[in-house]
Amino acid sequence: MTKKPNQKKHAGHDKHAGHSPAMFKRRFFICLALTLPVLYFAPSFQEWFNYQTIEFPGSNWVTPILSSVIYFYGGLVFLKGAYHEIRSKIGMMTLVALAITVAFVYSVAVSLGLKGNSFYWELATLVDIMLLGHWIEMASVQGASRALEHLANLVPSIAHKKINGQIEDVPVSELVESDRILIRPGEQIPIDGEVSDGKSSVNEAFLTGESRPVVKKTNDEVIAGSVNGEGALTIKVTRTGDETTLSQIMRLVKEAQASKSQYQNQADRLAGWLTYTAIAVSTLTFIVWLSVGTGGLTFAINRAVTVLVITCPHALGLAIPLVIINATSMAAKNGILVRNRDAFERAQGIKTIAFDKTGTLTKGEFGVQKIYADGIEESSALVIAASLESLSEHPLGQAIIQEAQKRDRHLDQATDFKAVPGQGVEGVVNNQHYRVGRPEWVEELKLKFPPALKKGLQESESRGESAIVLMDDQQVLAVFGLADQVRESAREAVKKLQEMGVQVVMITGDAEAVAKTVAEDLHIDRYYARVLPEDKADLIRKLKAEQPTAFVGDGINDAPALTEADLGLAIGAGTNVAIESADLVLVKSDPLDATYALKLAKATYNKMIQNLFWATGYNVIGIPLAAGIAAPFGIILSPAVGAVLMSISTVFVSINAMLLRRIRLRDYV
Question: 567 near 543, Cβ under 8 Å?
Fold first, then answer.
C-alpha cells in the first residue's frame, strides 16, 4: 500500500488515438453490406443452406474483390495500429492485423491457383466483428467520459456585466477579476464570484451532489455552473479562466481518467504476455496441424488464425480503464474528486482512518453547548446576552446570537452599548444594565458568583469549553459554555466507518479536555491531543506501521500528513479543489463523504478483480479450443466464432464496468 506521489501520467487507449465511435460504426456497416454477397457466394454457406448461387461472367471474382475491399477499408485501422505497436510494443492490434492478413494472403493465393480452400467469408465476418467490438468499446469509453462534457456545458458563454449602472451582455471569456455581473432568477452562474448585492438560493448539486439549494447573501461565494434560484444576485468576479472551480474540477477528473493505476499496469503486462503467448501458440498450432496432415494447409492456417483472434486481449485492455472511468465519473457527481487513479485500489484496503478535528469532525465555529442560569430563566438570559452581543463582532458573541436564532427568540434593543477591551461588552436591555464577558471580569468587578454557577463554570472548563458569563450590577446570572460544534454528519460517518470495520482515530492540536469531550461525543476510542501540525505526519507514519491508514484533513495545513498517509482525503476544500497533496478531494467538506469514498473504492476494486478474472480466465478454455484440441470430438471453432467469443468477452467486461453506475452510494452498504 505504498503511495507513489510522483507517479507519471500516462495516456489511456493510445491504440485509439484519432479514432471515434462514428468512424468504427461507419466502417462496420459498409463492410457488413459488402459481407452479404461474400456470404452468398461462399461454398460453405451453399452447402449448409442447400442452394446454388447465380453464375455470370466474372462471378468467381466477386468474393475476392469484395473481400479485398473489406480487408483494406475495414482492416486498415488494425493494420495502422499494428504498425505503430510494432514500433513500440506489440499488442491487440498486432494480433488482429496478423490474423486478417494471414487469412487474406492465403485466400488470395488460393484464388490465384494455390491448392486449398479459401476462407474469404471468415475474413469478412472477422473484420466485421472486430469493427463492431471496437465500436462498442469506444462508445462505452466515450459514454463513461461524458462527465467532462457535462461539466463544460454547465457554464453559460454570456454574462450580464454591469457597466456604469447599465447592463451589457459580454462573453464570459472577457470578464476579469472585480467585474460585477448580474445573475437573474433561474440563470446559471457563469463564473466564480462573491455576492456583492442580493439574496437568493443557489443549487450547487453539480459540485456537491446535494440537491438542496444553499442560501447565498452578501459576501458569500458562488460557483460557476451552479443555478440561481428565486432572487437576483450581483456578484463580483473572483476567479477567471483555468482558476475557476469548475476548470479545476475538469482538470482533476481528466487527469484521473488519463492516468494509469497499478491494476491497469498489471493488466497491460498481462495483455503483453497474452500477445506473445498468442503468437507462439498460433505458430505451434500451425506447425502441429501441418505436420499431422489432418485437414491440410487450409485447416492448419484456420486453426492458427482462430488462436490469434480468440486470444486477442481486447477485454483485458478494457477491463480496468472502463471501471476507473466510470468510478471517477461517479465520484465527481457525488462531490468526490479523484486525483490519483490508484486511490481506488489503496482505499479498499484501508483499516484505519484518522480525522483532523477542527473543521473536519467539527464545524470550526463556536456554538453554545450548555447554559447554566441562576435567578433568571435560561431563555431570558440567552435573549439578554444575545441582544448585547448583536452589537459586537466577537466570534463567541456570534455563537450566542446564533443559539437565540436557533431557538426563535426575538432580541431586544440594547442601548448605551460599550465594548470593554479584553473583558467583554456592557449595555442596557429593558432598562436594566448588564455585562457579558470573561469569568475573570467578575472578580475585577467584585460581583457575587452563586455556587451553582461556579460549579457550572467548572464543569464547562473541564470539558474544554470556552465560558462567558452574563452579569447584572450585583451578581452573575448565567454561564454559557461554548465549544467548536461537532458536525451531525460526523456522528453518522464515525458510526458507518466502525460498522465497516475501520478504526476511527481523531487528531487535534487542542487540549486534552477538548479532545476527550469531542471523542466521547463521537464514540471515538482513540484520539491524540495537543498534536502540532508538523507532528501529524509522524503520527500518521506510526499508524501506518500498524495497518493501512487514511488521513482526512485540511488540504493546506495538513499537506505533509495527507502525503504521508496511504490515502489522503482533503476536506474543508470548499471551492479550492486544487489540493495537490491529496488523493481524493471531498468538495462538500463533509466527513460522511469519506465513507462514500471508501464504499465506492471497494465496489470499484471488486469490479476490477471481476473483469481481470474474466478477461484472463476465458482464455484458459478458449485457446485450447481454438487450437483444435477438441477437433477429434467434432468441436471446431472457426475464426469468426473465435471473434464472436472474443467480442462477447469484451462486451461482458464493458457491461460489468457500466453496472458500477447502478450503485447508489448513500444507500450502498
Answer: no
